[in-house]
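Hi there,

I know you've been waiting on this one. I reran it after we fixed the sequence typo, so this is the corrected version. Both the input and the resulting structure follow.
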Amino acid sequence: MEWMYTLSGFVVGAIVGLTGVGGGSLMTPLLVLLFGVHPATAVGTDLLYAAVTKAGGTVVHARKGHVDWQVTRLLAIGSLPAAALTIWALSYLPRQSAATSQLISVSLGVALLLTAAAIIFRQQLQHQALAHADDAAHTQFRAPVTIACGVLLGVLVTVSSVGAGALGAAILFYLYPRLPAIRIVGSDVAHAVPLTLVAGLGHWLIGSVDWSLLGSLLLGSLPGIWLGSHASARVPDRILRPILAGMLLLIGGKLIAH
């Protein structure tokens, strides 16, 4: 079975490399629906998987000057305490109970639907934000709203492992419409690393991480991300993103009804 985990890691890694959308959107539901991994274990393992894979991306973005550290800091001010508090709340729930499984599955389904919407409507959100970019309300409350969005992402990512990628980027595109797209992506990836690390280590402390599974996933995903990143220039984004959004809508709906 371990080679199947490695193969799945490779496929998801390749899709992440092609589309830039976080692996949690695909890896966690894959583990839950296809392999029957308990949702809590799937989320905890995937969070550490994301922290490792996105750390390399952050180094690359940072070296090229693609990270706005002020934006990343504002998100982290909200997300890291929210992640810690969410872990504390989860620690009081029976880990293997049906109620916990249902809570995480529904949260995961909702997060996937939100991610799909973020992918589909990203350009419309950006255009709308550009139209109001210089409004006093848009600029005056930008910092506290960014922190509040960080809190939302912290809770969502800790419970479901989904949201740090496409959903985080969509929020930044709306709040910072004049920031170049590459700096939005770089800042989003940089923020995802400490968030997924804190949430993942928290899940480890409450016993929701399978280290053998994590190793098998990383063995496949790292070469998959490398190949996908190199192939991304040859595959049109307008084809990939609607297909990915459709997949997430189907998977999200199935998890909510699961």
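Quick highlight: The first helix runs from residue 2 to 19.

Best,
R. S.
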